[in-house]
Amino acid sequence: MTDAPHIPVLLDEVVAAIAPRPGMTIVDATFGAGGYTAALLEAGASVHAFDRDPDAIAAGQAMVAQYEGRLALHPARFSAMQAELAALGITQVDAVVMDIGVSSMQLDQGDRGFAFMHDGPLDMRMSQAGESAADFLNTADEEAIANVIYRYGEERQSRRVARAIVAARPLTTTGELARVVRRALGHKPHDKKDPATRTFQAVRIHVNDELGELEAGLAAAEALLGEGGVLAVVSFHSLEDRIVKHFLREASGAGRAVSRHLPGEIPGPAPTFVRVSKGIRPGEAEIQRNPRARSSTLRHAIRTGAPARSIAA
Question: What is the pTM of this model?
C-alpha cells in the first residue's frame, strides 16, 4: 500500500463497511493525505477523490500516476461531487467515504494557521482562498464573533473572549490569538485542555463553512449513491456527529410518527438509507497509535432504491 504521512482513523472499520473490490467506483470526499483512497485502490476499486486544499491535490499526483487510471483527483469541495461527476457522465457510485474536519496534514503545517502549537499566520483556510481567520476576527463586530465562538466552539464565555479579541485587534498570528483567549479565560499550565482550543475550532469551522459543507455533502452523497451503495462518515466532534446522526435518522425514517393515514392522505417518503450503524469508536490500541483518533466516530448506512429526498448542487 502507498505510504501516507498520516494514518486515517478507523481505517479498518471504514474498509469493512465499504467492502471495496474491483469494479467498484468510490468517492473519497476528503482526500487529505490519501490514506482511505490508498486502501480502496489496493482493494481494486476505482476512486474519485475530492479536496479543496491545493496542497493535498498536488501531493496526490504521484498516487494518480501509480494507480494508472483508477484514481481521479478533483480540486473541489465535496459538496460539489454530484455536479463534478455528472460532468464526466457519472451519475451513480458504489460508496462514499467522508472524513470530516481539518486534516492532520493541515494542523501540522504552521504556516497554514490552523493550530496554536506552531505560531503562524492567522489563516485557517482549507482552500487557501477567500476570507481568512484574520480577516474575520479583525473586521467582524463583537456580537458576530461571540456568536461564532458560542455556536461552533460551544464556549460558554464567548462574549468575554470576543470582547478581548476586539480590544486586541489587529491580530495577525495564531500565537497572538491563543494568548488573547488564554488571558480572557485564565490558563494554568497544568490544565488538561488549552482554553484556546474551543475558539480555534469555532473560527476554523466558520471560515470554512464546515457544517454547511457537511450538510450539502451528505445530500450530494445521497443523490449519487446507487441502490446498495454505502455511505461511511467519520466525524471528530459532537457538532459534526449530530448532523450525521440526524441526517441518517431522517433518511432511514427512524423516529417518524406512526399514524393511520386518512383516505387519500399521502404517506411519507420511502427511506433512502437502511442498516444504519450505531456510532463506532476507535479501540484503545488505535488511540495509542494515533491520539487524534480519540474523538472520532464512524457511522455508516446502505442506500436503498428510493429517490433522493433532495438534489445536491
Answer: 0.89
Helix/strand/coil for 203: helix
CA-wise closest residue to 36 among 54, 51, 52: 51
Q: What is the pLDDT along the chain (313 residues), one digit of tens a residue?
A: 333 346 789 999 999 999 999 999 999 999 998 999 999 999 999 999 999 998 889 999 999 999 988 999 999 999 999 999 999 999 999 999 999 976 555 555 555 656 767 789 999 898 888 999 999 999 999 999 999 999 999 999 999 999 999 999 999 999 999 999 999 998 777 777 889 999 999 999 999 999 999 999 999 999 999 999 999 999 999 999 999 999 999 999 875 555 555 565 556 679 999 999 999 999 999 999 988 889 999 999 999 999 998 644 4
CA 127, chain centre distance (Å): 14
- Dmax over Cα atoms in the chain, in whole Å? 68
Residue type, 237: H
Residue 225 phi, psi dihedral angles, 5° rounding? -70, 130
Nearest to 290 by CA among 15, 18, 116, 104: 104
In angstroms, how far is the first alpha carbon of the chain from the final one? 34
